[in-house]
Amino acid sequence: MIVLEVLFWLCLGLLVWAHGLYPLFAALLARLRPRLVRKSDLTPTVTVIVAAHDEEDVIERRLENLLALDYPAERLEILIASDASTDGTDALVEAFAARDPRIRLLRYERGGKLAAQNRAYREAGGEILAFSDANATWATDALRKLVQNFADPDVAYVCGRLRLQRADGSNREGAYWRYELWVRERESLLGSVTGGNGSICAVRAADYIEHRFGHDLGFPYKMVQRGKRAVYEPEALAFEKPSAEQEDEYRRKVRMFEWCWLTVFQGGMFRQLTPVYWVELVSHRLLRYASGILHLVLLATNVALVREGIVYDLILIAQGLFLALAALGRRRLRIPGASLAYYYTLVTWATVASLVRYARFGVPGVWQRVEGTR
Q1: pLDDT digits over 219-229, tens only?
Q2: How far is CA 141 from CA 41, 72, 103, 146, 241, in A?
Q3: Class of domain 46-259
Q4: Edge to edge, what strands does the sheet with 128-133 contain?
Q5: What is the pLDDT of residue 371?
Q6: SS3 sequence, 179-202?
Q7: Cα torsion 260, 266, 272, 275: sign
Q8: Given a cut of 70, is residue 173 above it in pLDDT?
Q9: Could you count the other beta carbons within 10 Å of the beta carbon of residue 207?
Q10: For residues 143 and 70, what is the distance between their CA atoms, to the nearest angstrom?
Q11: What pLDDT score was predicted for residue 146?
Q12: DSSP classification of residue 242
């Protein structure tokens, strides 16, 4: 029985730490010992890389948005890395390129987003490489806000602030995303963030790494391992439409967490880190990815410990009520908290489903866009 009790309290403690206490700890530490970035309004040469696969619905809007950026035209290059697009994407990009020499179309065989980005990097001429998704748009000053952080020689990677537009359906990703960005800003003040953002980010060309673990999670810790910083710039704004329904978001999260598990097991992400950043990475990333397993063990041990004390009984009742609230959210009943409970349950289960898929099949190289995000 003592083993069950230890497992129960360990899982409960780790969940409370990861989702509640760690953000408060990061905020307090950032207030006590902030590490500010030395910014300046510089304008290095920049190559913006957009990986695209069958994006004819949004690619014109993306190009018009990039061409309208408040940045010196002679210092901006735009590369569209077409990952074997079969629709009208390539023709639309070529039409833009004929009118504006800053734009180049790069055609590649199907290899996935990361492969397209790595290939485009080899053909980029900018001192700074900026990355964005085809369905995103940037504020006109977003690029300037990003690159001003590179005035600090310690900064190798910068991610901006993605604002999710209101979903057409039931997805509650926006509520989580606001919480995530709050934590990210505190981590940046501590020194470096633990995760980036594919919709709006930039890296020094000299610090770019070709690897198979993706930019969002891979670049921040890789920069820290090199003695550099990966920071968050909240004034560099991007806008994107989230998936419409909770179930669509679940499928997106499963795909995303597969890459996260790959990084955890094969990316060497916990080596050569400062003690503070190691705590950040374990608390914000590893424990988040393990939250599904922690919840399952917590529930199983809680059931086994029923009648071992009033505390166990009350916590089991609380878990049951939360799952019941999530079930009501699944039925889309207008009950306060039900939709968020369902979102949390789906995303937490996605961490388990992705681990199983990763163990069985590995990580697929190519991606399919999520419905409702264009």
Answers
A1: 999 999 999 99
A2: 11, 11, 19, 9, 20
A3: alpha beta
A4: 103-108, 76-83, 46-52, 128-133, 201-204, 155-164, 229-240, 137-138
A5: 55
A6: HHHHHHHHHHHHCCCCCCCCCCEE
A7: positive
A8: no
A9: 17
A10: 8
A11: 97
A12: P
